[in-house]
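For the sake of clarity, the format in which proteins appear in this thesis is described at this point. The record quoted next illustrates the convention:

___
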Amino acid sequence: MRKWTWLAGVGVVLALTAACGSSGGSGSSSGGSGSNVSSSKVLVGAGSTFVAPLVQSWEADYAKSPAAVTITYGAIGSGGGIDQITGRTVDFGASDAPLTPDQATACKDCVQIPWALGATAIDYNVKGAPDHLKLTGEVLADIFLGNITSWDDAKIKALNPGVNLPSTHITPIYRSDGSGTSFVLTDYLSSVSSDWASKVGASTQPTFPTGTGAEHSSGVIASMQSTDGAITYAETSYTAADALHSAELANAAGNYELPTEKAVLAAAAAGTTRPDGTIKLVDPPASAADAYPLSSYTYVIVPKTTPKAATIKAFLTYAVGPKGQAFGPPSYPALPAGVASSDQKLIAEIHS
C-alpha cells in the first residue's frame, strides 16, 4: 500500500463528520467557519489530493510550532473541498481548479490563494515498454478520446523511434470524483486539441469518452498498477512514491519535458493571470522552451470573514512562507517570490 493511502481514509471520516455538522445548505453559515470544530487551536481542511502530501508535512511541522495548532486535512478531492468550504463545515478548502463563477457566488466572499506549485504526471503501466515514452498533447487527447487504442499505434511509434512497443490495448484511467487534477488535465487538452475542446472541454468532473474511473489519486494509481496497458494522471509526488513510469510531454517549443522542478518553475515564469486572479500554467508559450506543459498551482480557499481569522492567517502565512515552502521540493517547487508576495496581501484580507 502506498504511503499516502491513509489520507483517503481521513477524508472519508472528515466527510462524514462534516455532513453530520452541516444542514447541507450552500454557505449556510453567515461568515462562520469550521462549524464542526470550534477550538481556535484546531484547523480543519478538506479537498485536493494533489496537495495532500505537502499538507501532511505541514501538519506534522506546524503542530510543533509555538502556535501549537493542530491541522487536520481530508484528501477528498477538489470538488469535495469546494463543497465543504462553501457549506462552512471546514475552516479551509483546497482545489487545483479555480472556482467557477457560480461556485464563487455560492462560497460567499471566499478568497482563493495559490499556496503550492506542482505538476501532473502522465503515468502508464505497459509491460515491455520503457520509462519516459514521448507523447504530445494531441496524441494524449486522442488516447483519452478513444481514437488511439493500442500502444503500438503509428502515432505513438512515430514519437518513439527505435522503441519496440507492444500491441497492448490502452486503458485510460480517470478520476471519477470531482477532481482539480482532472481540471488541470482537461484544461491542458482543451488548449492543445480542438477536438477535445469541442467534445469534452475543461472540468473538474468531465465526461471521459472511454476508460475506467477511480476515486482519488491513490485510486487511479492503484487501478493503473493492476491493469496492463493503463495510462492515468496524478500529481508527481504519487509518481515518485511508487516509482511509476511517466511520459515526457512535448511543450509548445517542441521540446519533451519531464515534470522536474526546473521544468515546473519554467512554466511558472510564463504563467498568465485569469480574470479571477488565478494563474494558468498549462500549455505555456513556445518562449518557455524548458517548461513542462502540465504544471499548475493549487489553491487554498477560505472565507474572508471567519471567527478563526487570526489562527488561519498565521497558518497560511507559514504555508506560503519560506518555512512551509521548504517542505515542497522537488515535487512542489517553492512559490515564485511575486506569487508569495501577492499571497500575503490576500491573507491580510481575512478578518474576524
Summary: The chain has a mean pLDDT of 90. The two ends are 42 Å apart (CA to CA).
